[in-house]
Design brief:
The complex is a heterodimer.
Chain A (H helix, E strand, L loop, with lengths): L3 E4 L2 E4 L5 E7 L5 E7 L5 E9 L2 E4 L6 E3 L9 E3 L8 E8 L9 E2 L3 E5 L1
Parallel strand pairs in A: 2-11
Antiparallel strand pairs in A: 1-3, 3-8, 4-5, 4-9, 5-6, 7-8, 9-10, 9-11
Chain B lengths: L3 E2 L4 E5 L4 E7 L4 E9 L6 E7 L4 E4 L2 E6 L4 E6 L8 E9 L9 E2 L3 E6 L1
Parallel strand pairs in B: 2-11
Antiparallel strand pairs in B: 1-3, 3-8, 4-5, 4-9, 6-7, 7-8, 9-10, 9-11
Classes of the chains: A mainly beta, B mainly beta.
């Protein structure tokens, strides 16, 4: 089945550690995205990539990094510089990275700082 | 700067009645609008979309209306069912400018449909 797979579903991070969230899609989509959701709030864009080897900062990119070495993969690293990393992280993809395209989401990853 | 706003945090309706969820936007560059449904601890699922060249789009029980002059869109669910209970997000994207190539989401509205 085609879809977007995020792993792990639950992740605990100690203060000062970097952690990486995985996102893989087999939909042959060019564009991929990372969003963050905090309790009671909407989704905020962290980073997005419209094509392999290219990515742009979203609205809240500070403390995060990404890479796009393969079309299928868009991992997100939450660095120790991210002051409030506890949140629900959502990866998404779309056929192309411009207006008029529906984006589809993975199941999400919970990150908790302990 | 909240470019997409859902001013009602929650909505409660009776089964079989109409649910109307509202969304306002400020960025005149937005030209494509989507509604997503989300359950806790899951990813959002796409419901319905509308392009700015239209003012209405229907898909089964779901209808989205767009009023460009008022920068307002709404999602109508008729008839509402208990399984529709979830958080609903509206989202918008633009042909250009700083919103090019990405979706901007509202804060969400929690819909509860009572049997």
């Amino acid at each position: 089945d085609g879809g977007i797979t995020q792993s792990p579903k639950y992740l605990f991070r100690k203060e000062g550690q970097n952690v990486t969230l995985s996102c893989e899609q087999n939909l042959n989509h060019d564009a991929m995205y990372w969003y963050r959701q905090d309790p009671g709030q909407g989704l905020r864009l962290i980073y997005y990539s419209q094509i392999v080897n290219d990515f742009q900062k979203g609205d809240i990119a500070e403390g995060y990094s990404v890479s796009r070495e393969k079309k299928e993969s868009f991992p997100l690293t939450v660095t120790s510089a991210q002051k409030n990393p506890t949140a629900f992280y959502l990866c998404a993809s779309s056929i192309r990275g411009f207006s008029g395209n529906t984006i589809y989401f993975g199941e999400g990853s919970w990150l908790t700082v302990v | 700067d909240q470019q997409v706003k859902q001013n009602s945090p929650s909505l409660s309706v009776q089964e079989g009645r109409i649910s109307i969820l509202n969304c306002d936007y400020t960025n005149s560059m937005f030209d494509y609008f989507l509604w997503y449904k989300k359950y806790p601890a899951e990813g959002p699922t796409f419901l319905i979309s509308i392009s700015s060249i239209k003012d209405k789009n229907e898909d089964g029980r779901f209808t989205v209306f767009l009023n460009k002059s008022a920068k307002h869109l709404s999602l109508h669910i008729v008839p509402s069912q208990p399984g529709d209970s979830a958080v609903y997000f509206c989202a918008a994207s633009a042909l250009g400018g700083t919103s090019y190539g990405k979706l901007t989401f509202g804060q969400g509205t929690i819909l509860t449909v009572h049997p």
